[in-house]
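Q: Fold this one first, please.
A: Sequence and structure below.
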Amino acid sequence: MSATTSKAIITVIGTDAVGIIAKVSGKCSEYGVNIIDITQKVFENTFAMIMQVDTAAMTVSFVEFTESMKATGKELGVVIHATHEDIFNAMHRI
């Protein structure tokens, strides 16, 4: 898969709070990013979420999207990272 993939992985980690999923999915929708798969878990008070998204119809550049997600994370008190799926897979290959 090349760096021009239309899929990305979004990770969210931080203290659990009401509205995290709603805010992150709302940002995706705002930029034309479709959620393909989502999993989330709360460990005691720590929220963890991984989303696979399709960025083919994204209305901004990937850099703009990642910066907006980082800002949303700061707003929510969590850390949000968005990475192209092929880069994510390469980073996590054993």
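Q: Good. Now the second chain.
A: Here it is, same layout.
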Amino acid sequence: MPEVAQNRADTQFEFITFSAGGQDYCLEITQIREIRRWTPVTALPHTPGDVLGVMNLRGAVIPIFDLSARFGLGITPANERNVVIVASVGGTTIGLLVESVSEILSVEKSAIQETPDIKSDATRHSILGMISVDDSMVRVVNLDAVLETGAGSSL
């Protein structure tokens, strides 16, 4: 790879943007395995309210989280337009129910701003940074925190 192309790859990130709880979020494209239409899941007893159940993904059983509920923004209403983002974090595959997927963003590393200090450890841990897009802010999700955060935590 030419040196110029390598330097560009080291400073640019690609994200998939999506909506959950009426808010804009994104994940690094390298964390996403696929995007699927919403299909009913198999509920499990005694799971937190933000864990919808499990789905069979080509022989692997994966948990499905309602990202809006996980972030304390309310339950995602059932809708055929909803999608499940299948993502991988630390060798674990999970599904995230979101309202919609929007676009792919290519941004310079310098364009990712720090999460503001709002006296919430859960927010600082769950949101890696903020990206300004037009007139809105897109939050960069920390997938590790999605797995660690307790049910109903408010961000």
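Q: Anything worth noting on the second one?
A: The first strand starts at residue 12 and ends at 20.
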